[in-house]
Design goal:
- By secondary structure, the chain is α/β, with parallel strands linked by helices.
- The chain has 21 helices and 25 strands.
- The protein has a 5-stranded parallel β-sheet. Strands 9-13-12-11-10 form a 5-stranded mixed β-sheet, covered by helices on one side.
- A hairpin with a 4-residue loop joins strand 22 and strand 23.
- Helix 1 crosses helix 9.
């Protein structure tokens, strides 16, 4: 290829495909990830124009609540088949951005407020999609946690927060699943556009994590094409001939090394050859049935007073009402909006199971009323954030009126982001959080309501009492094109549990139609920074069900503020009544580590670590504590180091105390012993200032002794 050919290969031919150049074939990239949004006519990246029919599987908000990588994998495998049938080589997803605030308009596209849960599910998705012959595009890299000002807002985040909260899901997917592409986000990170961020795209993504695929821009995200190419962004989408020309000119002017162009060309060439068209056909009926099965795994039973659910035969009259009973809300708006092959109506599916017991919309004296409520398409979408978390006032009024009229009332929610349950929660008997369940969600909800299958979803995000109780409340969505992540690592349940802030339902909460018991927890260190954990789970109820074993780690070891507990492993197990199983987790160093900004790496501090098995993030069932040797970091000392750092140094501290004691009179020693509180006052002083304070007291450390102690701090132990 000549230089012009090379440059042209680095942006799209049109909205959805790359250019065929020489022996390099064109590749089609299409939106996803819970289906295929294949456009063959007018094209857009915000879901306005039509796309070819495809199965709309449960979006990520639902899959997150399944807590089941098998659900994510089976969904992605089916999407791969449909992508191939629709001539798509790369399906754009999954989205792994963390749910920092419940107001983010695109939360329905993301899995969770926790990076481990997000990362595990996304890794399963990417592995299955690519095993099916279709490339993945993990997105949006990085810190894309709002829609307000998304094209220009700068997310101001300290590195520890980035490393512990906003990068781990990407890291897991890259290292374990090797996605074909990583999509650079629209926003800036600490003042630099993500699409031209050398630290993100080269140092972290490629050098640290070993990513060898294509970095592709979000559609229209490139601000400075030459800077983006230098930073590590290979492919600009959609096509942009003007930017291709800028690449050529930059090389000719000596501003850009042609080797940088060649590097990106080789990556795009490899992508085009790796994901060649593989014709396929898909069974529309079978995929719809799969969508129904998967959707049932995702809904969360929040409340079930007096075993209102499942609906039994003795319930003779059932009123079904609410805005989403006949015409369901099942997906979000924007680039992931799928044209479904069909849509299940909850009302019709309930009629199939309940027959003439359904009396439609009159709850008066009904044995049971089911109210289908939630948020409308216009309430949440790509492109803008929500203003609040309340249900529309007319729906709250409907719920309360129904609860007053019917003998029992069940509320079924359909929403892509968390909604408040306040003002009506205590007046109803059961609440089933359906999120957005895809095109077969109506049938899945009917199956759950009537006990054809049992609910097994768990909350992947906290339901707060008030929006004001959430960690990012004062910092979301920022101002004047800057958003400060002032809550640091205290995101979601990490904040609520650490601050003792009450919630309506905690992260990890979910009910089912049987009961489980957890026992026989054993925790054993397997190294200085690793452990093996096993626990027994038993189904103590009367029907088959699934339980999510949630393992949290709690510690205050190390020099940083740690959340009260953090999710470090989980497993979903299915058991028949009376059966039990033992679940074993091997926890590596990352389960105990924090990001040390001074060492610029992960560290496990020496100390005690409590392994907790939680019913959810608030309720610990069993726990055990182990001591880990970890890694003791002896900091090199200087005269600017604090007195506390000198005294706390494992080798220097005792030496310093001996030197001070040797130069003090008996009276001074007695006075020091009597006023131990003075030590706390001086611990923050720099050593040079501390020594100057000692001189008037007649206490002087020889310069040679000070130099020897500094040298001792530099000596490996």
């Amino acid at each position: 290829m000549n230089l012009q050919d090379k440059a042209s290969l680095l942006s799209g031919r049109d909205f959805w495909s790359t250019k065929p150049v020489g022996e390099v074939p064109s590749a089609v990239l299409s939106d996803g990830p819970h289906g295929v949004r294949r456009q063959t006519g007018e094209a857009d990246h915000v879901g306005i124009h039509q796309s070819l029919p495809a199965t709309c599987f449960p979006p990520a908000v639902a899959v997150g609540s399944s807590w089941d990588p098998a659900v994510a994998g089976r969904l992605a495998a089916a999407v791969a088949v449909e992508a191939r049938a629709l001539d798509v080589q790369v399906n754009l997803g999954p989205g792994v951005n963390i749910k920092r605030s419940p107001l983010c308009g695109r939360n329905f596209e993301y899995y969770s407020e926790d990076p481990l849960l997000t990362g595990v599910l996304a890794t399963a998705h990417v592995k299955a999609l690519q095993a099916g012959g279709v490339g993945a595009s993990v997105k949006h890299f990085a810190a894309n946690n709002q829609e307000t000002g998304r094209m220009r807002v700068s997310a101001e985040i300290d590195e520890r927060t980035l490393r512990e909260i906003y990068l781990p899901a990407f890291e897991r997917v890259v290292k374990q699943a090797r996605p074909a592409t990583v999509m650079a986000a629209y926003n800036k990170v600490n003042g630099v556009y993500a699409s031209q961020h050398p630290w993100l795209l080269t140092r972290v993504l490629r050098e640290e994590w070993g990513f060898d695929g294509v970095v592709v821009s979000d559609w229209g995200a490139v601000n400075d094409r030459v800077a983006a190419l230098k930073a590590g962004l290979d492919l600009e989408m959609p096509g942009n001939p003007a930017n291709d020309a800028k690449i050529v000119q930059a090389v000719r002017d000596g501003e850009l090394d042609e080797a940088v162009v060649d590097r990106s060309v080789s990556r795009v060439r490899a992508m085009a050859h790796s994901w060649l068209p593989q014709p396929a056909a898909f069974d529309v009926d079978a995929h719809h049935a799969l969508a129904r099965e998967l959707a049932a795994e995702c809904a969360v039973l929040l409340k079930n007073n007096s075993d209102t659910l499942p609906i039994r035969a003795e319930v003779r009259t059932i009123a079904v009402l609410g805005p989403f009973a006949a015409e369901p809300r099942f997906q979000g708006g924007g680039s992931s909006h799928i044209t479904p092959t069909r849509v299940d109506s909850p009302l019709e599916e309930i009629r199939r199971l309940a027959g003439d017991r359904v009396i439609t919309a009159d709850p008066e004296n009904a044995d049971l009323a089911i109210v289908f409520t939630g948020l409308a398409d216009a309430d949440e979408s790509e492109g803008y954030d929500r203003a609040g978390i309340e249900l529309p006032a007319d729906q709250v009024e409907l719920i309360r009126a129904t609860a007053a009229a019917a003998r029992r009332t069940v509320v079924v929610l359909s929403n892509g982001g968390v909604v408040s349950l306040e003002g009506w929660h205590d007046e109803v008997d059961a609440i089933l959080e359906g999120w957005l369940l895809g095109q077969a969600g109506g049938g899945a909800l009917a199956d759950l309501l009537f006990g054809v299958t049992a609910p097994s979803g768990r909350l992947a995000e906290t339901i707060p009492m008030r929006l004001q109780d959430t960690a990012a409340y004062l910092n979301f969505p920022g101002e004047q094109d800057v958003v400060r992540y002032g809550e640091g690592v205290m995101v979601g349940y990490r904040y609520h549990e650490t601050a003792g802030r009450p919630v309506r339902y905690p992260f990890g909460h979910g009910l089912t139609y049987t009961t489980f018991a957890v026992s026989d927890l054993t925790v054993q260190a397997t190294g200085d920074d690793s452990a093996r954990v096993s626990v027994t789970v038993a189904n103590t109820g009367e029907r088959y069900g699934k339980h999510v074993v949630q393992l949290y780690v709690a510690t205050q070891a190390g020099p940083v503020r740690r959340p009260v507990r953090e999710l470090r492993a989980f497993a979903k197990v299915g058991l028949e009544p009376g059966r039990s199983t033992t679940v074993t987790f091997d926890l590596d160093a990352r389960a105990f580590a924090y990001w040390d900004i001074k060492e610029d790496r992960w560290l496990v501090a020496p100390g005690d670590y409590t392994v907790q098995i939680g019913e959810n993030a608030s309720a610990v069932v069993v726990e055990d504590t182990i001591e880990l040797a970890g890694e003791l970091i002896a900091k090199e000392l200087t005269m600017d180091s604090s007195v506390g750092e000198w005294l706390g140094h494992p080798q220097v501290g005792p030496v310093l105390m001996r030197h001070i004691a040797a130069t003090m009179t008996e009276e001074q020693q007695a006075a020091a012993a009597e006023h131990q509180d003075l030590l706390k006052m001086i611990e923050s002083l720099p050593m040079h200032q501390f020594l100057s304070f000692l001189s008037p007291l007649g206490v002087r450390l020889p310069d040679e002794a000070v130099r020897e102690m500094i040298e001792l701090s530099r000596t490996p132990q």
